[in-house]
Amino acid sequence: MNRREFLMASTAAVLLPTPGRAAAPLRLKAEPVNARILPEPKNLTPMLGFNGSTPGPEIRVPQRERVSVFFENGSERRSAIHWHGIHLDNAMDGVPNLTQAAVEPDETFHYAFDVPYAGTYWYHAHHRSWEQVARGLYGPLIVEEPDPPAVDRDITVVLDDWRLERNGSLHESFGNRHDFSHGGRMGNVARALFSRDTVRRGDRIRLRLINAATARIFAVSIDGGNGKVVAHDGMPLAEPVPPDDLLLAPAQRTDVILDVTGPVSFTLRTRQSSYGLGTIAVSGSNPAPIDTPIRPLPPAQVPVPDPNGAARLTLVMQGGAMGGHHGGSDFWAFNDRSGMPEAPWYRFSRGETARITLRNDTAFPHGIHLHGHHFHEIGDHGALGHYRDTTLVDPRQSRDILCVFDNPGKWLLHCHTLAHQASGMKTWVEVA
To answer: Mean pLDDT throughout 291-319?
Structure first.
């Protein structure tokens, strides 16, 4: 896209709904909303949302607490909610035709689950997600550490894009063949949405970045401070690293702790140019800034894999434009199979370790997401890399992951470019 086609709207910060504690029970109602995507005096955008807004309300809950949510479907579409990245009971995972029936309009479904790991997560629709997430059915889910890092502000930053008409309405091109066979539904407006629009110079802030787009990979630069990346996909890094050249595939999250030196701006880097996504303004100075080094977050107590006894599996991504032939029945396939098979791709014993080679034989990148689990990305010489629930595999490249399948149930495995999932790139595994 060139600058005329890419309608950036970053002159002012757009605030997320006020964060709220997860009082028991919580009510989430999917319903039509009008969103401020384009700056005033341009039109509001009719969308879908939760509790009157999109993104939906930020849910905050202490680690190891139980979440109880009554989902009311006030839209005219069947739907369900997936709690992305949470290691939860399988029946609560929110995948129609695998873990539950879709919730009909005007009906209610009760989700109740524990949150074992602290970190940055999110929730989103998982029925026709390529359309319902693009229409706005998603929101942040923050699980707080018992002993959080010392920061002055904890700020959620949702990255998203929207395909809009000139009058501000959503372009009704959902599910078209070009999007499904190419890179997915790319928007012509992109923004960063903030839970807070001002900070003080000298503040130490925690930025929780969430890529809620259905297709866009956000290559993001952050200016206005010095800091470190401390977590990916909710899981702490053993050692914080500088936030250089951040890259977030759809559904990925990254936590950054930053010492503020000026307005905190977010920039999208593309092959053509760079575009401002939004800025958190500076107002005043912190009289007593935190001056200790940025330290790692408390480590998560995760299962230890058995690399030597791991099952060895290969999942091949196939299809799409310029992708060649495959044996599937749709645009995309895993191992010559499109869409959900009746039998699982693989059955694991509880606690079994698997090393899976994710091989991308297509011309497009894919962010592969495993429900109900995290996994280690495998680095050079077999070293354990980041612990994630979604990994980005570039075109014609491969990545090995190592996972302990310790959560019983039926778990979806799919590309989180949601148009790719809808047109073939999904399967499932079963843990006994």
So the answer is: 96
